[in-house]
Amino acid sequence: MISQVFTTSIGGDPELVLETHHMHLEAPNWTRDSRALVLNGDGVLWRFDLGSHDLDRIPISGVPELNNDHVLDIDGEHAFVSANDGHIYRAPLAGGRAERVTNETGRQQFLHGVSHDGSTLAYVGLEPGDGDVRGQANIFTIPAQGGPDHQVTFGTAPADGCEFSPDDEWIYFNTEAFSPGQAQIARIPVNGGEPEQLTFDERVNWFPHLSPDGTAAVYLSYPLGTTGHPGGRDVELCVVADDWSEPVRRLPLWGGQGTINVPSWSPTGDRFAYVAYQP
């Protein structure tokens, strides 16, 4: 499998910045100085320098193998990461020991968002499943330094991909609440309430990511009938303006899981990053 990391502007041509068959890379986000991308690969974090094109492992200790859900802290020196033990940790980007943030809840906890004031994390809490049946997933928040959990969504419809709006008043996410088995993009007040549906098409839409100024967003779109967010599919990245009407751009590629799971806009908001795959 070849991993291809691209960056692109809203209307420009994609630029291939990294290609490798040595490792399955996933979920790029940008460092605060816009000089590098942080990605997951082989259960650890990697830093890819956009100038030198060096790809270096970030030596984090005190944490189990990581999954691909990671978001950078606003201090520019730490990342919040989700591990395969179901917990979220805060780890130094320069390398060092990670510290656990989340509580023992019995849920698996998958990080997706950090508030823009740095105070709060938004995560997906996955309840234990029954045999082959996937457990119920809802949106929760927790103080970034640790503290009590706050449940934001309730019910039986799966929810995922939670991310704060630039003003920290809303959480954007994907949910099957409006159409069972077909995820659509929605938003909900950060303290909970009624979700507002934002996409209404005949596709399965995941992982909304808002530009830093809130004037645009990008999300991952699967064909109708897709279950969950698998990899290795013909998908689209859809770019919308802040009114969430018809996409202003559709970018077809082969990918899915790993392509754009985490916030992926540059700090200046002029580009976003994603991963495509080739067999």
Automatic annotation (TrEMBL):
Protein name from the UniProt record: Biopolymer transporter Tol
Superkingdom of origin: Bacteria
Family annotation (PANTHER family): PROTEIN TOLB, PROTEIN TOLB HOMOLOG
InterPro entries with a match to the protein in the record: 6-blade_b-propeller_TolB-like
Record Gene3D superfamilies: TolB, C-terminal domain
Pfam families referenced in this protein's UniProt entry, alphabetically: Tricorn_N
